[in-house]
Amino acid sequence: MAKQANSVDLEIVSSSLLSVLQDLHSKYKSLQEGAVANYIPELAKVNPDLFSICIVTVDGQVYEVGDYQQLFTIQSMSKVFAYGLALEDHGRDYVLTRVGVEPTGEAFNSIILDERSKRPYNPMVNAGAIATTSLIKGDGATERLNRILEMFRRYTGHDVFVDMSIFTSERSTGHRNRAMAHLMLNFGMIDQNIEEALDLYFKQCAVIVNCHDLAVMAATLANKGINPITGERAVDHQYIKDILSVMYTCGMYNFAGEWAYTVGIPAKSGVCGGIFAVVPNQMGIGVFSPPLDARGNSVRGVEVCQALSQQLCLHLF
Ligand code: DON
């Protein structure tokens, strides 16, 4: 649990939490920095002005402003949840033989493996996420995808679907990810059909959510794995610390250190422009705004989370 003072501070502001979000939304909506992701052609079509912020507390209260019902694909934020499912499928020790927990300090799409172990560095960068998703159990591609979709249903509280145009757009242009998968096949870190593993990873990234969903999913992690709206368990409690530790150290890529220093809570971003952050035992935060900075993190998302951390005293230390 975050230190006691945080809970007290949060209580003081809880009555005006919505107005805190409204103020941040109006302050940052005019910020015109960054550029929407265009390396997946379909993603480049998004409206850069879309902007929403949502907080869901572990007791199920919801505060949201802006375009919080706007749908988008979850992209890299899916990596967090797939890591949890791989841990449930195989246990910590085995997953650690296939993917490490070390930050890279490099871009999310760097083609690097740990020299000594040949593992990808961590499950939050693309190489590690492809290896992680290749571990998801199931009898064939359809069953494995269905297990991923069912997992997202538990986290969001509703059925989720894959955006097939984003999926095919990424599949036909994702040669860099394909190169990583081949490298990992060479070192025995992936041992199944490469195209099937990549398809599953691309589909997982193309799952459709909105900003409200992000906050509910984050709140589920904050609530020890139980969705605070539905009461359903989404992930085994024992893996929450694994998931949040890796989010904390690796979730924001080559901005992870500065994020830990300035915001101080586990978080994950995606090239769609989403960021979700987890305040253990208190709340989940979701922000959506498509323009990205040079490291692939939402410009407004980073600003909002830094401001929220300060105003609500969310930093863990
Ligand atoms: O693998 C990719 O390139 C995308 N499907 C996901 C990348 C992503 O969201 C990275 N996040 N900032």
Automatic annotation (TrEMBL):
Coiled coil: none annotated. Substrate binds at S76, N126, E170, N177, Y201, Y253, V271. Homotetramer. GO terms for molecular function: glutaminase activity. This is Glutaminase. Pfam families: Glutaminase. InterPro entries: Beta-lactam/transpept-like, Glutaminase. The gene is glsA. One of its GO terms (biological process) is L-glutamine catabolic process. Keywords: Acetylation, Hydrolase. It catalyses: L-glutamine + H2O = L-glutamate + NH4(+). It comes from Anabaenopsis circularis NIES-21.
